Amino acid sequence: MIVDEAEAKEGYVKAEVHNQITTIEFYHPKGNALPSRLLAKLTQEIDHASHDDSTNVILLRSVQHEVFCSGAYFNELMEIKNETEATRFFMGFANVINAMRKCSKLIVARIHGKSVGGGVGLAAAADYAIALEGADVRLSELSIGIGPYVIAPALIRKMGLSASQIAIDAHLWRNSDWARRKGLYAELHPNKESMEESIERLLGSLSKNSNAANSALKRMLWEGCENWDQLLAQRAATTGKLLMQEQTQSFLGGFNKTVVF
Amino acid sequence: MIVDEAEAKEGYVKAEVHNQITTIEFYHPKGNALPSRLLAKLTQEIDHASHDDSTNVILLRSVQHEVFCSGAYFNELMEIKNETEATRFFMGFANVINAMRKCSKLIVARIHGKSVGGGVGLAAAADYAIALEGADVRLSELSIGIGPYVIAPALIRKMGLSASQIAIDAHLWRNSDWARRKGLYAELHPNKESMEESIERLLGSLSKNSNAANSALKRMLWEGCENWDQLLAQRAATTGKLLMQEQTQSFLGGFNKTVVF
Amino acid sequence: MIVDEAEAKEGYVKAEVHNQITTIEFYHPKGNALPSRLLAKLTQEIDHASHDDSTNVILLRSVQHEVFCSGAYFNELMEIKNETEATRFFMGFANVINAMRKCSKLIVARIHGKSVGGGVGLAAAADYAIALEGADVRLSELSIGIGPYVIAPALIRKMGLSASQIAIDAHLWRNSDWARRKGLYAELHPNKESMEESIERLLGSLSKNSNAANSALKRMLWEGCENWDQLLAQRAATTGKLLMQEQTQSFLGGFNKTVVF
């Protein structure tokens, strides 16, 4: 996609439609981290594709780095001053996940690299994640005094309670094969060519399917999650409250702001 | 079991009791596909064994082909004229699955070969599936404009949301090892001898157990599925509606009627 | 921990706190089996650590034998005279599991050897189980005319319906790798050094975390299990009823009382 200088510096979310396939791409210079502004744009593009009659399937991807998504943008998180701001911040991922859930189209995610925190949530909320070897995952939240509360429902829905293993052990990376075995990834490919080929084949066939059949399947797969608007909002509030605790703030103060990975 | 000429041509469902074990066997010349008539017979035999005091465990199996069950009988599906007929047709598998669920006896399934669609549903609804290498699975429903709505609850119950992987990718076979790893099969054997030996051993021990203990375990394993009479009926209606859509009918018109695999 | 002669003979449950870590250790000369007396003590120690401000994480472990825990103490079970006693007996494990569930601290379990029945339930109810190769599992309940009803909710919560495989096949051991793949164990180590190192590292980091964050994660992981006080009590009653059945009592009568493994 075409990117201008400001976008290269500040990050972006862009969407394009070709042959009934909407590709949504995000980028941020700090390891594809997602500040509130980009999370809002992501939510908006998913909503838009959901209502777009010329779209039959969505591809979610990010660019460049060896990282798919390093989660919430840490620099923004460090500047939060109170619980209201904190809750609003964590609602960013809640809104994206709820948009993915309520989207009428099936969402395929291309996971070409590592994910942390909220990034793992995106992979989990996708209907079908196709990953590249090396797409390791880690939930680091607990180690800074908060927790992966907002994304946990999406993870547990897909991986079962195995999700708790990465939530509890906040320091350990789990490799991409672990993520495949646990059901986070539907496919794991040894090289980019194989991954791209598989994505192309699947998008090709899903885009030619009956739109009604695709949408009915999407609805069925998310049955039982109707309370997630409320649930994820509560989870954002819980996380916001923990973030403002004295102990958490002193953890954060000790952090080298440039380290995400 | 003894089979006459008409049965060899039209397919059959038969049941026999020996040593507290009821064996239910089905057969159809087209890859053990199941027309409505055989699905009704299967439901009836499962119900009968459920109430039979001389039965302590059930073995479900099919014969001949390298195929365990190729799902709904396509030729019958192609002749459906309206939504009422379509819903009735899809209720065939709903009734079998609900009979398996409500059956007071534990059901062991012998999966000696591939399954498609509804056939995968039978493996999922069994309490303990013992499979042979090569017993690959595929849900082809989405590619013809419908979806595996009726069998999905049984699949998701056993495999978790990993079931969605085969529902979304309707063109790809998943191999028997995938099915074992995802929990669809409790055991996977490298050869027939090993499979038969394991089935015999398990049936032997279950048939000698306390009937009350077996039945209590069966009930416990299906707790939380009490709404499936309604749920699967709704799912059959959803599938019936999709089948009658213009786009689906034109997909079906383009099919070579002899191809199931 | 310091053990006197009576404790070595009768078994014990002991707890110690060091550096925000409470270690709870149990022992019984018969393969770390748990009589009612030790189950009550275990429940009590878990409750105590839950309310202890100087505790931030719990380690649950057993000693000596190549066995982590061989479940309910068989000699006690064989002497039960009526349904009331039987239900009370099975409430022992129900109480421990509910104490683990309601405990405000995360519980790490060190599974250094095999488990049977209720022992498997302890591994399942732990928040994070770190096991040693050879820590195989078996649910033998069905074969003696009862069933793993009390522990099943904990198993199914962690392993999904794969738990039913060991419930149905009461004679077969599943190896430690199976248990890891099914999610019962978060980690499986090839040798003791590696297991101890991993436990030490994890306890070290969890003990330094924000207590509020740890507790919020614990609560989140057990959401949806609020009815287990009632559920497990019903399950204990079901098991008690089955135990007193004539057929079960005659099974038990035929048992060599010294054989557990």
From TrEMBL, chains A, B, C:
Q: One Pfam family, please name it.
A: ECH_1
Which keywords appear in this protein's UniProt record, sorted alphabetically?
Isomerase
User: InterPro entries in the record, alphabetically?
Assistant: ClpP/crotonase-like_dom_sf, Enoyl-CoA_hydra/iso, Enoyl-CoA_Hydratase/Isomerase
Gene Ontology MF term list: isomerase activity
**Recorded superkingdom:** Bacteria
| Protein family (similarity comment) | Belongs to the enoyl-CoA hydratase/isomerase family.
Q: What is this protein called?
A: Enoyl-CoA hydratase/isomerase family protein
